[in-house]
Design a protein that fits this description.
alpha/beta; Rossmann fold; 2 domains; seven-stranded parallel sheet; globular; binds glutamine
């Protein structure tokens, strides 16, 4: 087993996760089996209870783990399916250590960061090794070198190489090489200092990924090489990408990142087979058509809050030889100014998941506009609940219909809590989470898009479609076309008498890949294209 640890210096949001994922792509396409994971230094046990404003999207895995959005990159850039073992936080580490202390596992000892916390971190790596047949594990350490809370993780990965042998461990450090306008110069000092911080702990990077706005010439490389004590070839420029993030593996391949790593770890493979990947990138970067799709949400100003949805639209666009221009619409603005103003010139509308009652009425107005104006509609999770509420109110005259999440006293709870969820008091990890099977009716549009009447999709929600209203809604042209296998939980709704109206209780965006777009997204973008203004 070989191990690659990825750290970051200077600033956050460097694209460290992207660089790690791109390395994963390159190694996988050399025929190696790669597993990727993230260690996060914050104290939350998982990001499930954090606001998207704090942390971007929560990415859900098959087993229901609520994880960092970098795991989404990993699953999109490699074929690995990840599990709860692959996202470790300080919260989990301390929770385990304290449980063990109370049980008496450390009886007699003073429990300390070194060795008890660092042992717990290393143990997770060994647990992952047990659970996988991968050749290489790439572990990204969240945060920036110099952060107090990241120290135990860095110390753990330092100790780790002594346990498994130096020849089996490579360290890749990502830094920023800023351009100072007044001097018209790229500056290497921040890189030097962040590498010095790492070396203080005892980690000497084998590769430095230098994120920069401008090309990095040999002079700069030599300087970084000398001050950071690594070979000039191992200084890998990672210049801002203008086209698509999926170009990252190709850019890093051009800089020989994969061969440097393979040489360092003694891995003998051929060159990576990048034909499929290059074709996909070409379809994303040079499409024939273009279409505008509106996404109506409440975290619209944040690039990362609906990360997987935006990525899925891009994948589906490539499959339709189309550039999807995403128009981000704040549901609060629709509440103030009406839906027409914002939806008039989009070719389709998507309402993503969400929690809390801010902006709900604006989303309901958007769904009504889409239904009444034959605008293709794709609802995801909350977007499905919204479509149901809208239909009940405006097509079935169920005045005041709502979800009990937002209006506990509603006369028509078309979306409500299941019996099991009523008893729950803790907010963390208590939703309906992870992959569950759904059965679809054969004649539904969804079953045709999937090419199957049984699907497995990932979930993250608490509230459910209230089947007591099914008949009444269906009499007015609504269809519940997908349910859990026992028929109790609503999974997919459609309006057949509409160019494209599909809304799902699950999150298809967590399974879309650039080389294998999700069928519902593909169908949605095709419908948008057909409806182009
Ligand atoms: N808030 C809704 C629920 O809990 C929808 C959740 C979501 O969109 N992920 O059921």
């Amino acid at each position: 087993m070989k191990y690659i640890f990825v750290t970051g210096g200077v600033v956050s949001s460097l694209g460290k996760g992207l660089a790690a994922a791109a390395l994963g792509t390159l190694l996988e396409r050399r025929g190696l089996k790669v597993l990727m994971q993230k260690f996060d230094p914050y104290l939350n046990v998982d990001p499930g209870t954090m606001s998207p404003f704090q942390h971007g999207e929560v990415y859900v895995l098959d087993d229901g783990a609520e994880t960092d959005l970098d795991l989404g990159h990993y699953e999109r850039f490699t074929s690995g399916r990840l599990s709860q073992l692959n996202n470790l936080t300080s919260g989990q580490v301390y929770e385990n250590v304290i449980k063990k202390e109370r049980k008496g596992d450390y009886l007699g000892a003073t429990v300390q960061v070194i060795p008890h916390v660092t042992d717990e971190i290393k143990q997770r790596i060994y647990d992952v090794v047990e659970s996988t047949d991968a050749d290489i594990i790439i572990t990204e350490i969240g945060g920036t070198t110099g952060d107090i809370e990241g120290l135990p993780f860095l110390e753990a990965i330092r100790q780790f190489k002594d346990e498994v042998g130096h020849e089996n461990v490579a360290y890749m450090h990502a830094t920023l090489v800023p351009f100072i306008k007044a001097a018209e110069e790229l500056k290497t000092k921040p890189t030097q200092q962040s590498v010095a911080k790492l070396r203080e702990i005892g980690i000497a990077p084998d590769v430095i990924i230098c994120r920069s706005e401008y090309p990095i010439d040999n002079e700069i490389k030599r300087k970084i090489s000398m001050f950071c004590n690594i070979k000039p070839e191992a200084v890998v420029p990672f210049v801002d990408i203008v086209g698509s993030i999926y170009e990252a593996p190709l850019k890093l391949y051009d800089q020989n990142l994969d061969s440097i790593i393979c040489e360092r770890l003694g891995l003998e493979t051929g060159e990576p087979d990048l034909i499929e990947w290059r074709n996909m990138v070409d379809r994303i970067v040079n499409p024939t058509h273009s279409v505008k799709i509106g996404v109506v949400g409440k975290y619209i100003e944040l690039q990362d809050a609906y990360k997987s949805i935006y990525e899925s639209l891009t994948h589906a666009g490539a499959a339709n030889d189309t550039k999807v221009e995403i128009i981000r619409i704040d549901s609060g603005d629709i509440e103030e100014n009406g839906a027409a103003k914002y939806l008039e010139d989009v070719a389709a509308v998507l309402i993503p998941g969400g929690f809390g009652d801010r902006g709900i009425e604006g989303k309901i107005m958007a769904a009504q506009y889409a239904r009444e104006n034959n605008l293709p509609y794709f609802g995801i999770c909350l977007g499905m609940q919204i479509a149901t509420i809208e239909f009940a109110r405006n097509a079935c005259s169920l005045i005041g219909a709502h979800s009990t999440e937002f209006e506990p006293q509603t006369p028509h709870p078309v979306i409500c809590l299941l019996e099991e969820q009523r008893e729950i008091e803790n907010m963390g990890a208590t939703m309906r989470l992870g992959t569950w099977e759904a059965k679809l009716t054969d004649e539904s549009r969804s079953a045709k898009l999937y090419g199957s009447n049984t699907v497995n999709e990932r979930h993250r929600h608490r509230y459910e479609f209230n089947q007591n209203y099914k008949t009444q809604l269906e009499e007015n042209g609504f269809r519940l076309v997908g349910t859990s296998p026992d028929g109790t939980l609503g999974e997919i709704i459609e309006i057949p008498d509409h160019p494209f109206f599909i809304a799902v209780q699950f999150h298809p965006e967590f399974q879309s890949k650039p080389t294998n777009p999700h069928p519902l997204f593909k169908g949605f973008v095709a419908a948008a294209l057909a409806n182009r203004k």
